[in-house]
Design goal:
The chain has about 280 residues and is an alpha+beta fold. The protein has three domains: about 50 residues; about 160 residues, Antifreeze-like/N-acetylneuraminic acid synthase C-terminal domain (Type Iii Antifreeze Protein Isoform Hplc 12, Alpha-Beta Complex); about 60 residues, SH3 type barrels. Strands 1, 2, 3, 4 and 5 form a five-stranded antiparallel β-sheet that branches. A five-stranded mixed barrel has the order 7-8-10-11-12.
């Protein structure tokens, strides 16, 4: 009895709808036309929002000076796109790959950056991703154009020479004084020494503690000859080599130009390369 009553109510509600619309002055085809028009309007509005340039933009905008997270994302994206230091870039004779670690600093909290719709991250001219460096951030589309620098520390871990024991200035380095260990190659402006044969027999210029990295500036330059010594000059070029004799007017320190007077009286500047030997490369 209850089921029949429910069915009767459903039938009565369904049947009364056309009559109600008719009493209000609407014909059925007018109702369906209005519903269809509303559906089309909603689809068009939704599509306009979905496919608008602002909806499709991939880059977030900087809405205020507090959007440091957005700026940091730009820096991280740039670093991922850059070629970071590799052991293939150096005279790494032990073929051990470097381990690169990038640490982001923080912008000066006192900076008040205006809102920006387009920010570009870049590596400043003359800068390289090595040691303490920085990445530039430039607003290219906004009411106020600004340019700031984000501090970045690039640590490059690789095998280099360290002191075995405490070494004092003036000590002559031996093979037993040094060993290979993993150090941050980019921690100092002076390059780390990678090969013992490059420094054995040379004099230490500053003290080193056990485990401390040996840098090129930590050893004194070799003096291959003194002023007044007779030296052998070799001039090298593409496909030829010419030798001559001369007299050193200045001491022949490694890495520094030495003035040599040739037998004909001409004075040249040559690079000391060995015991009483200098070279000029054309």
């Amino acid at each position: 009895m209850e089921t029949k009553l429910l069915n009767h109510r459903k039938h009565s509600d369904t049947a009364s709808a056309p009559g109600l619309l008719h009493d209000l002055g609407f014909e059925p085809f007018q109702v369906w036309a209005a519903l269809l028009s509303a559906l089309v309007w909603l689809l068009l509005c939704g599509g306009a929002v979905l496919f608008s340039p602002s909806a499709q933009a991939q880059q977030p905008t900087v809405s205020s000076a507090g959007d440091s997270g957005v700026l940091q994302a730009y820096v991280q994206t740039l670093l991922h796109e850059q070629a970071l230091p590799s052991s293939n870039d150096s005279k790494n004779n032990n073929h051990t790959p470097w381990r690169v670690e990038v640490v982001l600093g923080q912008l000066d909290p006192r900076l008040k950056l205006a809102p920006c719709d387009k920010v570009k991250a870049y590596v400043p001219s003359g800068m390289r991703l090595w040691g303490n460096t920085r990445v530039g951030l430039r607003c290219e589309q906004g009411a106020v154009r600004w340019n700031v620098f984000w501090p970045v520390s690039v640590k490059v871990w690789g095998q280099a020479l360290v002191a075995v024991n405490t070494l004092r200035p003036g000590a002559s380095l031996t093979q037993e004084d040094l060993r290979l260990a993993e150090v941050d190659l980019a921690a100092h402006a002076s390059p780390a020494v990678l090969r013992a044969q490059d420094v054995v027999g040379r004099t230490l210029s500053r003290p080193l503690q056990p485990g401390q990295s040996l840098r090129q500036e930590d050893v004194k330059a070799r003096r291959w000859f003194a002023a007044g010594d007779m030296v052998r000059l070799t001039v090298k070029g593409s496909g030829f080599s010419v030798g001559a004799e001369g007299t050193a007017l200045t001491a022949g320190d490694e890495g520094q130009c030495a003035r040599i007077r040739l037998d004909g009286g001409r004075v040249v500047c040559a690079d000391p390369v060995g015991s009483r030997q200098v070279e000029i490369t054309l």
